[in-house]
Structures are given as structure tokens and as C-alpha cells.
Amino acid sequence: MLCVLIDGKHAGDIEFHRRRATLRYKPEYIRDSAVPLSSRFPLAGLEASGPELRNWLLNLLPDDESVLNHLRSEFGVDRRDPLRLLETPMGADCAGAVQFCGPEDVADLLASKGGEHPITNDEIAEWLRDYPVLPASMDGTRRDLHVGFSLAGMQPKIALRSVADGTWTRPWGSLPTTHIIKAARIEYPDECIFEHIAMETAARLGIPAATTTVTEVDNLQVIVVTRFDRFDGGALRIHQEDTCQTLGVPPAEKYERCSGPGITELRQLASSAGGSAASRNVDRLRDMLIYHWLIANNDAHAKNYSWLFAPDGSPELSPLYDACSWLPYRGNRQVQRIPLAMKMGEGFNLKTCDKEAGLVGLAEKLRRSRSEICERVIEFANGLPAAMDATVDRLPGIAVNPQRIESHVEELRGRAQKCERLAQTTLRARP
To answer: Is residue 215 part of a domain?
Structure first.
């Protein structure tokens, strides 16, 4: 049995029978809380089961099968069911306010039992460099570097807790992580720099975005992301779920071009809060979609849109995260052949999106006017060069390829001008 804690309360239990999972909420949790494990599993339902629950849990785990295999091996978990990893100490710190543990550990988590161990920059760098093979190869004194967190995605990363003196610790038990540290993949040089440029530029344009910094640990370039699902200095957790979890979709279907969710499904979720909250959600969604298109981010799939739960259980679209332009990595591919994760108009690649039909299609899917969409595109396209320059000017003095950065900035300037002209043309066209 897998015990489920939300915001430090025993919310319910999940029982596994073969490959079937069943969630049953605790009556006292239903009485005292309004936040469900997922909007797909409301408290009024009392119980949930089926493939959607398994998919929800699978979306908490790393996407890389080799990482999962190493973790299964280390913890002695049945290779046929990776969900058993949530019964290990990994389940103590997941995305949002949820924690998982076996029945024997519930009392400790409810009593806020936990602590932290110092970790050096050398150890952080070693973890990231050797990811994903490290868990199975570490010696007995250092095997627990990953214990206490579970992160989805493909990029090498580690979740840690920031200390006031600027150092890091590995929390365990009830103590939350506060930051995620990611390293660039070998095939994507300066990936951390380009992600940071995209994230901070978005924030300068007024788009709520996770706070990022880029630095080096033991000569390894990393991006440090402040978790938006933590608050009060990391003392408390905020519950959240990504769009695949909300819709009961497995992580393998996170891209619309792989039968996953698209803009229409995102808009429906954004509107589900009702009233002014729905309008704010759609406004934020509109801005994120325009920005991803503007910078040619081909990885803005459903798992990169998350929903934070308000105290009353209503969903709020989270800040932007994991945004990065694909322009530096297209190789010999023409820009127009870069595919987006979600379809704006008639197709996925920029050849079809960079047309009047693309902007009109976006407006229709969001149920907003074409003038609203075009005016927002013009605003972002005009503001992007200055916002990007300010971001680049503040980059720290770490080892980067300045020519690569300069080329990226110039290419994005040109793309912004092209997008602005398209929006002007679409705005003048007859509906």
C-alpha cells in the first residue's frame, strides 16, 4: 500500500493489485481539506482507479528508461512496475505538495520528521556528469545522493535545498527541496545559457516565469531553477499537477503530434476555474503560447504546462518553466521546418504556423479575437530585443561560446521582426 500525504496531511491510500491502482481518500481529509490529489480525482469521488491513476503517478517519475532501470535495481523494485519507486524515499519529495511513503513511515512524515545533509559542488557536479549511471555505481557512503526527490523529464538534474550561506543540502523526510539544478546535455552545448535567456527574457516581458540563474559547479555549466511549488522560503509545499496528469495521459503522449493534448485542451483546463480566474488563466496561457512560438521553442509539450491548486481546490496555470529556443540546435534544418509541440493552425512546423492561418487558428482555439492575439504578438516582438539584451548583459562570467550567444540573439531579433510583420498583416486582413 502507498500512503498519500498532501500538504502534510494523510490524504488517502493507494492499493496496487497487479497493475491496477486504486486511490481511497481518508474521510477526515475530505472533511478538512479542499485540495484533491488531482482535479481528475475530486474529493467528492471518494475513490479513483483505472489507467488514469497509474498515468498520474508515472508522470512523477523520470522519463529516461535507463534512469528508471538503475533506480529499480538499486532499490530492489520490480522492473515491471516503476510505480513501486514511490514507496522508497524518492516518494518523500515530488512535484507539488504530495508525498508518498509506506504505512511504516506515515507517522514520521506527519510528525514533520526530517533533516538535511550538506552536499558539495563537487558532489553535485559528479551526480550531474554521471547521470543516469550514478545510482548503481556509487559507493555505500554516497549512494543516497538522489534519495528524497523524484523529478520527471530527460535532462540531468538534482533537487536540493538552498542554505542561507549559499551552499546546498540534501533534505530527507518531510523537509522540502527548494531548487532544481540541471546540466546541459552533451548534444546541446550551452543549453543552460539558452534556457536561462529564454526564461529571464520572458519575465522581462511580463510573463510569470520560474526564477533561474546560470552558474558553474566544478567547471560544469548548470541552470538553477527556484521551485514555484514551494513558498515561505521552502518551508511549505504548494500542490500542483501537469497537464498530462490532469487529463490522465501517459508521459509518452505529452506531445500533441504523438496523440497528446493540444491548445484546445489547455484552454478548456484554463477555463475550468470559472469567473475571473478563468480569464486570468487563459490570458497567461495566451502569452505562453505566443512566446513559445516567437522564440521557436519546440518542446512546450503538455508536461511543461502545470496547474497550481488554490486553497479552494481551483486550478491556476503555473508560471512558465523549461522554456528554451530550438534555433541554436536546428543544425542544417531550415527554421521553417522546426516543429512546435502543439498545433496553432494547420500544422506543427513553423512553415504553417508562421502564416495568417496560424495566428487565426491560435485565436480560435483560445476563443479570443484575432486582434487581441495580433496585438499581443506585436507587443512581445517589439519588446523582445531589449528584454533579451538586458538578460544577456547580466549573464555571469562563466565559460560560454560568445559567438554562439551573439548569433542566437541576432537570429531571435530577426525572427521577432518577422513575427511582428506577420501580426501587422493579419491585423489588417479582413476577418
So the answer is: no
Supply the range of the domain harboring residue 85: 2-183
**Do 73 and 145 fall into the same domain?**
yes
- pLDDT lower than 70: segments of the chain: 79, 132-148, 430
Residue 138 pLDDT: 38
Q: In angstroms, rounded to a whole number, what is the distance separating the alpha carbons of residues 424 and 358?
A: 14
Verify that 76 and 166 share a domain, yes or no.
yes
Indicate whether 29 and 151 sit together in one domain.
yes
CB 256 within 8 A of CB 342: yes
SS (H, E, C) 256-310: HHHCCCCHHHHHHHHHCCCHHHHHHHHHHHHHHHHHHHHCCCCCCCHHHCEEEEC
pLDDT of residue 76: 77
Q: How far apart are CA 53 and CA 15, in angstroms?
A: 11
431 prior amide bond cis, ω within 30? no
The confidence score (pLDDT) of residue 159 equals 93
pLDDT tens by residue, 188-235: 889 999 999 999 999 999 999 999 999 999 989 999 999 999 988 777
243 and 116 in a common domain: no
Query: What total of structural domains would you count in the chain?
Result: 2
> pTM for this structure?
0.93
Same domain, 314 and 379: yes
Q: Do 108 and 32 belong together in one domain?
A: yes
